[in-house]
UniProtKB/TrEMBL annotation:
<dbReference type="InterPro" id="IPR050647">
    <property type="entry name" value="Plant_LRR-RLKs"/>
</dbReference>
<keyword id="KW-0723">Serine/threonine-protein kinase</keyword>
<keyword id="KW-0547">Nucleotide-binding</keyword>
<keyword id="KW-0808">Transferase</keyword>
<keyword id="KW-0433">Leucine-rich repeat</keyword>
<dbReference type="InterPro" id="IPR000719">
    <property type="entry name" value="Prot_kinase_dom"/>
</dbReference>
<dbReference type="Pfam" id="PF00069">
    <property type="entry name" value="Pkinase"/>
</dbReference>
<dbReference type="GO" id="GO:0005524">
    <property type="term" value="F:ATP binding"/>
</dbReference>
<keyword id="KW-0677">Repeat</keyword>
<dbReference type="InterPro" id="IPR011009">
    <property type="entry name" value="Kinase-like_dom_sf"/>
</dbReference>
<dbReference type="InterPro" id="IPR008271">
    <property type="entry name" value="Ser/Thr_kinase_AS"/>
</dbReference>
<feature type="domain" description="Protein kinase">
    <location>
        <begin position="1"/>
        <end position="168"/>
    </location>
</feature>
<keyword id="KW-0067">ATP-binding</keyword>
<keyword id="KW-0418">Kinase</keyword>
<keyword id="KW-0325">Glycoprotein</keyword>
<protein>
    <recommendedName>
        <fullName>non-specific serine/threonine protein kinase</fullName>
        <ecNumber>2.7.11.1</ecNumber>
    </recommendedName>
</protein>
<dbReference type="GO" id="GO:0033612">
    <property type="term" value="F:receptor serine/threonine kinase binding"/>
</dbReference>
Length: 168
């Protein structure tokens, strides 16, 4: 089934191009089987969450802990990707679900922000007949959502949470 969230993600990813955002290569929708599939560039090093929550003794290819230089490189990549969404896209795009599991790492440990299922343009947030914000403003992952109403500034709150995770 081709739902609104999937359609929004395909539309959003189809029109944005930035080195620190995942690149949509294609998609498949099988209404009969009831599944949707997005095809992205392969990110060899998995998610930032995987690196921050490594299980000692588990058989994996993960390198040693992330050093500060790599952590700063990841943080800078995330900032550049979000900066593109907030300043270079027309209309502005708010990701609304930035978290360490949505920051994917390529073979060079460069950050690529993914999972745009909750992303919306700023225009979509406001009802055209009034100035009230829609209920859809409060989407995102628990613990990563800024308290209060969503603004461009509060949409940066999840970045700071990811930066905190990178610093410990």
């Amino acid at each position: 089934m081709f739902n609104k969230s999937f359609a929004r993600e395909v539309k959003t990813l189809g029109r944005i191009r930035h080195r620190h955002l995942v690149k949509l290569m294609g998609y498949c929708c099988n209404r009969g089987a009831g599944f949707n599939l997005l095809i992205y560039d392969y990110m060899e090093n998995g998610s930032l969450w995987d690196w921050l929550h490594r299980q000692p003794g588990v058989n994996n290819k993960r390198k040693q802990c992330l050093d500060w230089e790599v952590r700063m490189q990841i943080a800078l990549g995330l900032v550049r990707g979000v900066e593109y969404l907030h300043h270079d896209c027309v209309p502005i795009i708010l990701h609304r679900d930035i978290k360490s599991s949505n920051v994917l790492l390529d073979s060079d440990m460069e950050a690529h922000l993914g999972d745009f299922g909750l992303a919306k343009s700023v225009v979509e947030f406001y009802d055209t007949t009034s100035t009230t914000e829609s209920n859809s403003l409060f989407a995102g992952s628990y613990g990563y959502i800024a308290p209060g109403s969503l603004t461009l500034l509060s949409s940066l709150f999840p970045n700071f949470w990811v930066f905190f995770q990178l610093s410990v």
